[in-house]
UniProtKB/TrEMBL annotation:
Protein name (record): Cytochrome c-type biogenesis protein
Pfam families linked: CcmH
Keyword hit for Secreted: no
TM regions (residue ranges): 42-61, 134-155
Annotated GO MF terms: metal ion binding
Domain CcmH/CycL/Ccl2/NrfF N-terminal: 67-176
Keywords: Heme, Iron, Membrane, Metal-binding, Signal, Transmembrane, Transmembrane helix
């Protein structure tokens, strides 16, 4: 039996100068001291470590965590959100602030709310789709529609004026019989000159 345990120790990377026969696996010495297989102090320390382990894991956010990416994808960062992080100091400062807030157990929604309270809706890349943010979405469309209407009216006026200038004005006059015959004679004479 001692040989199998010794080989298992080598397999799991246990290096000890003692032979497997000298190892004491019976825990008889700890029972003699009254400590049992594990002392109370060891159990308390182990329980504390296991209780603190999830908090340490959850509290350490990085730039690769989904919560961080969720927040930074929505922030404008004073116009620096599209800059390269290796060269932009403003973006580095924002990123470190966001990581710090996440590590202080702030939710992504709380962080977004903090920045919008401090900087207004300009802190976001895309404004909210409700309230005053809705106005920001509708103003470009309203401006485009108003501009198209003004341009259409201007084009219509210009084409109407040009059409009036190009077309001859016909004045209708009532001619008497003698005036009509003299006009016909004059037109015939003019036609004969040119044709």
């Amino acid at each position: 039996m001692g040989g199998r345990i010794h080989n298992a120790g080598r397999y799991f990377g246990i290096t000890d100068s003692r032979t497997a026969d000298s190892w004491d696996f019976s825990c008889a010495e700890s029972h003699k001291k009254g400590g049992g297989p594990m002392s109370k102090k060891t159990i308390v320390l182990l329980a504390f470590f296991l209780a603190a382990l999830p908090a340490m894991v959850y509290a350490s956010f990085t730039e690769n965590s989904p919560e961080f990416r969720e927040v930074t994808s929505q922030l404008n960062m004073d116009g620096h959100s599209d800059h390269d992080i290796s060269t932009c100091k403003v973006r580095k400062a924002y990123n470190s602030e966001v990581i710090e807030m996440l590590n202080k157990d702030m939710s992504p929604e709380d962080i977004i709310r903090y920045y919008t309270d401090e900087l207004g809706t300009g802190a976001l890349k895309v404004p909210y789709k409700e309230g005053s943010g809705l106005l920001a979405w509708l103003m470009p469309a309203a401006g485009l529609a108003a501009g198209a209407a003004i341009a259409g009216l201007a084009i219509k006026r210009i084409t109407n004026r040009k059409a009036e200038k190009d077309s001859p004005t016909i004045i209708e006059m009532q001619l008497s019989g003698g005036e009509y015959s003299s006009l016909e004679e004059t037109l015939d004479n003019e036609r004969k000159k040119y044709f």
